[in-house]
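User: Some background: our group keeps a shared notebook of sequences we're curious about, and every so often someone picks one and asks for a predicted structure to add to the entry. Today it's my turn. The entry only has the sequence so far, pasted here. Could you supply the structure so I can complete it?
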Amino acid sequence: MTDKTAPNGARGFTRLTRREMMAMTAAAAAGSAALSPGWAQAQVKGGVLHFAHYANPSSLDPATSRTATDSNVLWNIYDTLIRSTPDLQPLPGLAESWEWEDETTLVLNLRKGVKFHDGTDFDAEAVRSNVDFAKNDPRTRISNLLETVREVEVRDPHTAVMLLNTPDAALVMALTERVGMMASPTARAERGEDHDRNPAGAGMFRATAWNEASNVELERFEDYWESDKQYLDGMVINIITDTSTGVRSVLSGQNNFMHYVPTLQVNQLKGNPDLEMFVGTSLYFHKLYFNMSDQRNGPLKDVRVRQAINYAVNKDAFNQVICSGLGEIANMCVPKDSPGYDEQAASHYTYDPDKAKALLAEAGYADGCDITFCFYANPPGQQRMEVVSSMLEAAGFRMTFKSGSVPQMGKDWNDHAGDVFMSAWTGRPDVALSMNLLYHKTSYYMKGKAEPSPEFTALLESTKSEIDPAKREENIRQAARMERELAMELPIVFQPQIVIHRPNVKGWEPNILGKPKFNEVWIES
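Assistant: Of course. Here's the predicted structure to add to the notebook entry:
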């Protein structure tokens, strides 16, 4: 096994810091052999990548998707207006270039000759249609990311102009993710809600089948605009919710790639000649989501209850049990050494169950606080629930439990089925995007449009609208501190990014988001 955490191809397990991860991914982008000596070989076309994925998608439409894990499927079907490097710098995508004419006018110069999977031409009208759908369709989940965009002007067939209500310093990086994924307007209009299952993007693969809870089948899109870097004939994304079973499927050769490997299996996989492994940091962190809405009208509306939960959980113990000690403690929504990290915000809470009990008593729950705890009904989800719930119980919480599949629990949580939800946040390419998605009252992730503080809402908005870099950084720090005081979530641990693949899979690059992308991946004969 080639251990990709070791410098210069040496073997042996080494945990990477974020800086080391970014340095290695930069080296990979420059063609370094540090991550995979096999990259020096000539790429070949052909072959099907079999990808073991731990969650069934909720939708194959980027605007209606309800779970973050869907991105691992969507990247292959859709291209984005703007791409990003592994360390999150913007690159040309479907937009060959872009420029700010002024603080509220973003001009996108679009690539010519691009086709959607249904044969529709990609042009400025398609951009306008996609933005309109993402902003206004009743089923959209990403409208808040486009709140600053008033409209898209079609200046000519290959120039789309985003006209903003207010400056938005995070917009360019937002266009590297779901907001920037372009779907065929013709297909959306003709297929309606069926586009969720039968999509038409402009990516290197077209979806041919989604076999519920079994797999998603993709085949090479022959009219892909970047065909010179399109090597695979197709992909089969096999849904294997038990991650240990997923590992066994790669060991047996049933699959040849897996990106969410349990930390407990790292040591036993080291030295296996039939595998290559990458271990690094990511923006993905385990957390408890809180429902503080009027619709739920539960105890989490009280800030003291939310603060009690933050004091009640021993994150070091969670890291040892769940992440084998390989994770980084999460004390806010970004890790150390990341843009937006603030030491004052991160030091707000320590493990103190007595303080948690005192806060519960102050909130009127001296005899215990009843909450409904939601979690995913798979082995890792069960384990995470058991660790966290035992700590909450020791601090004075009484729990009832609700569980289900990843898509089902996303729906149930959206329907206010519980008070806390043991899940995760996969990170975003700009910290202001994460903050506004996690905490802003209009976000899909903020149940019931809860707003514990209008001042906090205004501060969140300023993290995007302020274009002066120094002032924007200070606003982000202030927002991080206020969020910790309001205790709008329980961040626990940043999950180490652990990927395994068969040695014949070549060209894959890690990225700090921890979301695998397969552009330029090829299979050695």
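Suggested note for the entry: The chain is about 30% helix and 20% strand. The CA atoms of residues 313 and 516 lie 31 Å apart.
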